[in-house]
Amino acid sequence: MRRNRGVTLLLFMLTVAAFGLVGCTVEQSTLDPKGPVAEQQVSLIYLSFWIMMGVTIVVAVILLYVLFRYRARKGQEYIPEQVEGNKWLEITWVVIPAILLTILLVPTISVTYNLADASDDGDGVEIVVTGKQYWWEFYYPELGIVTANELHIPTGKKIHLHLEASDVIHSFWVPKLAGKTDTIPGRTNYMWLQADEPGIYSGQCAEYCGSSHALMAFQVVAHEPEEFDSWVAQMTEPPSEPQSQLAQEGQEIFTQSCASCHAVEASEDTVGMQGPNLANYGNRNKMAAAIMENNKENLVDWIMNPQDIKPGNLMPDLDIDEQQAEALAEYLLNLK
Ligand code: CUA
């Protein structure tokens, strides 16, 4: 029995240490903050973690001491004095937790107010995020553009997100930039985030939303402000014309079979379409809501078998052959 407790404690500590190590290396880690929102949140995590670790260690030490000090000894019939109701002990175990919780309460309230302040300082970027089964639409009302699954933002600026959903509840989460906030049909939630350095930050739907919930990822691409401006400029240009015979064929198939759900221009007239916006698709790093690398092989595979790759998504079986899928892929990958 006593040995079991020791093993449990050891396993617990190893698990904690493993989480700490993993936090430094994985793509999606709250413990590796890259912006002021995530930094404030992780500071609360560490504060509460160390307070609780302190309590755990003190309790474990007292427990171990009592287990050894008062353990049954051979040939000894000894029952310690039975104590019941001790005023000072009871005051102690009310006062100590009260102090610890107060230490946690003050920064918690302060961070909560900081993060609730979604007011625009005039310099930020406003983005309407809509969670859909199983992808993300990002609409920039001030810029009049829309995109999907790749959220482009400038570094060093407050990004104001208006979070909505068009079908079921999803949750928007970019672990390195900010904690999760639900997107709820019929309601708008607000949050802000900021990236200090340029880079790609992985995000994930964090609320079970159906059979392909785990396949509903996205990326946040943070650019230096000037580069962000050129991204915006590029998005406002009309889609590039196909450069090859194959791409030309692809465009025809697209117009016939895909264009009622997908747009290839980023204009705000296309907000709310059934399928993800594909403007400048060839520049994307990932595809199918950031679950696969964006390359020809994967794209052909996806066009041929969308339901095998992402069960329950709304993309129908297009009933086209591999050659047609290749033409489509060629067309889409050349949209730059
Ligand atoms: Cu969307 Cu889970």
Which segments are poorly predicted (pLDDT under 50) over 5 or more consecutive residues? Answer: none
- State the share of residues found in helices, binned by percent: 40-55%
Strand order of the largest sheet: 3-2-1-5-8
The best one-word shape is elongated
Distance between the termini: 66 Å
What would the average pLDDT be, to the nearest integer? 91
- Based on secondary structure, the structural category is alpha+beta
Number of helices: 8
**For the report, how would you describe the main beta sheet?**
5 strands, mixed
Beta strand count: 12
Q: What molecules are bound to this protein?
A: dinuclear copper ion
Characterization of this structure:
The protein has 336 residues and is of the alpha+beta class. It has helices spanning 2-23, 36-69, 87-116, 225-236, 245-258, 296-304, 306-309, 322-333, and strands spanning 125-132, 135-140, 145-148, 150-154, 159-165, 170-174, 178-183, 189-193, 199-205, 217-223, 286-287, 292-293. The protein has a five-stranded mixed β-sheet with strand order 3-2-1-5-8. A hairpin with a 2-residue loop joins strand 1 and strand 2. Helix 2 packs antiparallel against helix 3 (87-116) and helix 5 (245-258) crosses helix 8. The longest helix has 34 residues, at 36-69. The termini are far apart. Bound molecules: dinuclear copper ion.
